[in-house]
Amino acid sequence: MDKNHVKRGEGRLKFRLINYRSDMQFAFFRGGMMAPQLAALSPIIRVQNPNEPLQRHLALTGDNTQMMVQWVTKNSSNPTVKWGTSPGAYNHRAAAVSSTYSRQELCGPPANDAGFVDPGLFHAALVEGLTPGQRYYYVVGDEEWGFSPEASFVAAPPVGPQTRVKVLAVADLGQGEVDGSMEQSEMLVSLNTTARMLQDIQQHDFHLLVHNGDISYARGYVTQWDNFMHQMEPLVSSVPYMTTHGNHERDWPNSGDRFIEAYDSGGECGIPLERRMVMPQAGRDKPWYSFDFGPIHFTQYSTEHPFHPGSEQHAWLLADLAAVDRSVTPWVIVGGHRPIYIASTFNMPDQGDQPVAIALRAAFEEAFVEHRVDLTLHGHHHSYQRTCPVNDNRCQDTQQQEPAPTHSSSSSSWHDARSFSSRRRQGGPPRVIYDAPAPVHLVIGHAGADLSLNVDLNPPDIWEVIKLWWGYLRIEASATELKCEVVSDMDSSLMDAFVLTKPQGWGAAHMQQRSAKQQQQQQQQRHAGEGVPGGVQAGDVRVAEQ
């Protein structure tokens, strides 16, 4: 606004408005935030089509011949998706199932108070009979209110080591206003991150986006969810968008999360995320699930729900890892929100970074090593951090190599000024890790929220890279390589790059070894039951893992 507006008694501002499915009005206040006084109201702004299909987004179901297509309207009664293999030719259609949530379902303020407006109806339609890897064109809406512009997606690729895939991953993203206005909760940097990820999707054939908690930072305000989904729609209407719960979606006292007194969701207690983004989860308020994508098995779980041994989620996660056929998906990536390893000084009981990390390691680390999990992706701490392959706070890898550079990994001075690591690897070629016996753990909570400054400035030797700058993760996987690049949101320069590798045929050898081990255990149990002294010795069955 012109700074002379006070003298002239008039001024002009431009705002970006999106369709909130209801009429709107501007109010002008004097007196600032401390003593606001209503001075003027604009005419009412009418919404021409409250049932315009908006906020389109996709999700995998666990079956790569399916895609869940989702969108929102005010109250349309016959929501439908139409699709086909050619632009404008929609030979198939499916009706959607609709849901919403009420003020009464939410757990506390502001979600059930000042932050609540009608969220509309959330529609989810199952597209079936897809050919893996085929591009499909689709529209959503209904005959009465009209259909959306056309969008397209590529069906999930064939599952197996023969497939090469490219994946994007973030945590702690949020949303921002493009018109410069201020609002209850916004992360302006998220605009850069989403713009660069959209470029990767459109120009570099990335076909999946994983978001591990702290999604919109709406924290009880429905319109913040609308703003976030408007920002994300160009990305997630063209690639499946798989989410997990973070503290800012789920936590509220006495609502079923694992914390004693956490108010981080603003009273949402997980309901808006669960209704808005249908995931192939175990059940209501059980947001853990897994899916296969090419040569990768993704196991997604909730650090906000009970995960201790004996809990339902703990039993599910261990069973999921035990059931993975590594000859089909040689790579296993586990994702959640709060990190299992973290270079942070936040030690507050119950919710502190370190107490939660210790609890996660006590619950899962042994299983992660036993089942050869390759990589974990967490957020919560707003930084980028990477460990060596680690078990019990010790580096486990013995085969390393620094090859000739294959791509640029230059960093800006800003990145270097905010870099901390025990091994102090600034720039240079990507780190290559051969057949690691334990997971590499990443913290990728640097997608948009304000950076966390409580970094341990003298971290243990397990930490190879710690950086305070915003960005996101790119993954490219084949049967024998899992390439990871961490990209700056500022200029797309590489903040980090590393490669995990496996020998050809690793998956089949691993499954053979696992089968032999299980047979050996069964024999020991039979002999023990028959009273045979000593049972079967470990040397009786030997299958080398390659």
UniProtKB/TrEMBL annotation:
Residues 166-384 form the Calcineurin-like phosphoesterase domain. It catalyses: a phosphate monoester + H2O = an alcohol + phosphate. The lineage of its organism: Eukaryota, Viridiplantae, Chlorophyta, core chlorophytes, Chlorophyceae. Its EC number is 3.1.3.2. It is found in: Secreted. Residues 2-49 form the Purple acid phosphatase Fn3-like domain. Keywords: Glycoprotein, Hydrolase, Secreted, Signal. Its main location: secreted. Belongs to the metallophosphoesterase superfamily. Purple acid phosphatase family. This is Purple acid phosphatase. It comes from Tetradesmus obliquus (Green alga). The keyword Protein transport does not apply. It holds the Pfam family Metallophos_C. Residues 390-432, 509-546 are annotated as: Disordered. SUPFAM superfamilies: Metallo-dependent phosphatases (SSF56300), Purple acid phosphatase, N-terminal domain (SSF49363). Residues 53-154 form the Purple acid phosphatase N-terminal domain. The keyword Transcription does not apply. Residues 438-496 form the Purple acid phosphatase C-terminal domain. Homodimer. Residues 396-407 have a biased composition (Polar residues).
